């Protein structure tokens, strides 16, 4: 299902997922 705002939204979601994953790694190290 495509978002009406287009590819920028998909890029933002990918970036958010990367940030969340990095945060999980940080929490594991902490």
TrEMBL record:
This is 6-phospho-beta-glucosidase BglT. It comes from Thermotoga petrophila. It comes from the Bacteria.
């Amino acid at each position: 299902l495509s978002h009406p705002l287009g590819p920028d939204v998909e890029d933002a979601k990918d970036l958010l997922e990367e940030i969340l994953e990095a945060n999980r790694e940080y929490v594991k190290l902490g």
